Structures are given as C-alpha cells and as structure tokens.
C-alpha cells in the first residue's frame, strides 16, 4: 500500500521527499527557507568566482563593490525569508487547526475567500472539518438516541445519570429515580400488531415528556421500560409526579386505543446519602417496579409511604 501511494505521488512529491530526509532544519518552513537561502546566494557566489577567475586581483581592486553586493544580497535574503515565512502561514494555520481538532475537537475558523492554491486549501480544510464535525455529532447523537421515540437510550442515561448523581452528592441535594413499564405490552403487540405497539410507545413518550421539566432526564431503557431521573426532587414530589403520570396514562386514549388499554406500573426511589452511582439506585427502583406489577399493575410503588 505504501509503495502504491508513492507511485501515485510521482514527480510532485519527489523533491519534497528528498528534503524531508534532511536532519536539519526539521520544520517545513525551515527547509523552504533553506532553499531560499541557496537561491539568493547562488548569483553572488557565481559572480565572485567568475570575477576571480577572470581577474585574480578583482577582490583587492573592487572590495567596495563586493561589500555592497554582499550587503544587498544579505538584505534581499532577509526580506525573502520574512516574506516566504508569511506566505507559509496557511500551511502552519492548517497544521495547527488539524492538530487542535484532533486533540480537542475544536472547530477552527480558517480564513475564507482567498483565491490561490493556499486559499483553496484553507477553504477545503474548513469545509471538510465542518462536515466531519457534523457527521461525528450526528453519529454520537444517534448512538445515544432511541430511534423510535427520539429520546435518550440506556447509553445516554448511563452517562448523564452519573453526572446528576455526582452533583447531588456534591451539593447534598435530593435526587429521585422513576422506572415505569407498560403493562401487558406484549398482549397489545399480539392483538393490534407491532405497528400499533410502536405507536403506543411514541404516544406514551409524548405524554410523559409533557409532564416533565427540562432538567429531568428521560430515557427508554428497554422494550417497554422507561426511566426518569429527577434532580433536586424529593421523594414526595417524585411520587406525586409518578402518580399523576400513572393516572394520566390509564385515563386517556393512547395511539387511538380505548382509555385503560395502555397502563403502566411505576417504581419510585430517592437517592440515599451513601449512594454514589446509578446501579443501586436503579436496582431499588426496579425492585419497586416489579412490586407494583405483582400487586396488580397500573399503580405506583415507593420505598416510603407518602
């Protein structure tokens, strides 16, 4: 593969590869400036050699002329170095932008609208990074989003729940979790079809979202199981919310099914002072969820009487 790539490079990369073997200078700009140095001094060296060969006494007779020529050459070299260094700015800017994006995912704002090859490179790199950034963001969002209900999935919940639990631990504020599961959902699928079952899931999601605040975390964690994380919420408040959602679901038509066909069972818990991760919190909520199902479904179970 490497040899094939070099063959495709052809003549345009041959000179670059030759200079790339130099141990000093190591930078791209330094090697370009080295070329400029030789380029600006070749006329002077050639002239001096020619003059000395033609007239060995040239140096003694025309030392003032040689001095002026040398100073002019050095001045021209300095100006050339300065201008070439400035002309190489697009290469440095692009290199820095690519490295910064790779390390920090920071999208650059490269100069646009320049008309030469360097300007074209700047435009192409900017557009490529913008497209790449959009694609990566879409992929990350898709990886953490349930495609049917368009809310967070289990993976999304895991990362965000840990953040909220750590914050609650740090600020010593209450945090609650609600797990709920649709009752007899398999029977709905069997009787009405999976398309209707999907519509039920979407309808339930839409209803529940309407009852939540923007600070609440809401995710679909299983086929018909959902989880809500409630920061800065006491157990009493969480129980009232869960009971409101339980009664609201059973009392209305979801996906054009008769009221009472779609119901859900809820488990509600509050984070304990020594609870530092989501695992034990959600495990307790899951136990209460199954308690609600075993007690007859379509109800709310909590660890403490409210």
Automatic annotation (TrEMBL):
Its EC number is 2.7.7.65. It comes from the Bacteria. It catalyses: 2 GTP = 3',3'-c-di-GMP + 2 diphosphate. GO terms for molecular function: diguanylate cyclase activity. The chain crosses the membrane at residues 28-51, 63-84. Pfam families: GGDEF. PROSITE patterns: GGDEF. Residues 173-305 form the GGDEF domain. The keyword Oxidoreductase does not apply. Gene3D superfamilies: 3.30.70.270. Keywords: Membrane, Transmembrane, Transmembrane helix. It is an enzyme of class 2 (transferase). PANTHER family: DIGUANYLATE CYCLASE DGCM-RELATED, REGULATORY COMPONENTS OF SENSORY TRANSDUCTION SYSTEM. This is diguanylate cyclase. It comes from Microvirga tunisiensis. The lineage of its organism: Bacteria, Pseudomonadati, Pseudomonadota, Alphaproteobacteria, Hyphomicrobiales.
